[in-house]
Amino acid sequence: MSLDQESGGLALATAAPHAFVRLAPPSGSTWFTRHPGSASAKIREKAVCTPGIPQGVLEQYRKLAASLHHSQAEHGTRIIMMASTLASEGKTLTATNLALTLSESYRRRVLLIDADLRRPTVQLMFDLPNVSGLNDALHGDEDARCSIFDVSTHLSILTAGRPNQDPMSGLTSDRMRRLITAAATEFDWVIIDTPPVGILPDANLLAAMVDTVILVVAAGGTPFRLVNRAVEAIGRDRIFGVVLNKVHAEDLWGGYSSYSYYGYGTQDDQR
Ligand SMILES: Nc1ncnc2c1ncn2[C@@H]1O[C@H](COP(=O)(O)OP(=O)(O)O)[C@@H](O)[C@H]1O
Ligand SMILES: [Mg+2]
To answer: How far is the CA of 145 from the centre of ligand 1 (A)?
Structure first.
């Protein structure tokens, strides 16, 4: 029976069974073998699937993935906002490496969404075209399905699309809420790379749409008072944990390597 018959002619809104159109990446563009020397190759150097990444680095991402996995089992956590106070603290790299770890090591279905609409870079990480994406889904035809790229068996990417210098209204809109809710029905994990909180006056509105927030902090770089302000803007109780990023390996293990290191602490660690 159609909804129209049942409701006496009133059309009821229902969620589309599949809100996304799955696209294969353009030919020649596969994650593991691509254009050495290109801007993308450079930006991918620190991705966990690049050969030569130190084992200790891989372990830090696995630790983060394991605590999220645990949180999913306990609390149904599924939608993550990757936030930072300022630009260049490492949100995109952390979001990418977490997405790769959850999809490759845990074999979970992951959608990585580039919501940093002012400065989108996820397409560079995965060598994808950025002609259409989240911004178009938020401002285009309401009925159009959103195109995503399946870059591996378990990992899909929604690029940012046309850059938008005023991203806030779209990111906090009901359409954004519907899009991430639909994503959470098709994927085990939805990871949202977002603009820095410093330029996101309504960070709490976006944070309220997700299950939890991971705050990336560049070690030794971001003033504590600004980090504190970002925590207040997001809402302390919304934050799952902090990734302390760009920590020098020597600071951790006395000269193990000159490669920057990653660490994270959960709220429990901070008590
Ligand atoms: N732990 C790290 N060690 C070394 N370089 C890093 C680390 N995290 C991020 N970077 C580099 O810092 C730059 C900014 O990182 P990115 O993830 O793009 O930041 P954001 O998305 O917060 O603006 C990139 O060149 C990235 O490769
Ligand atoms: Mg970024």
So the answer is: 32
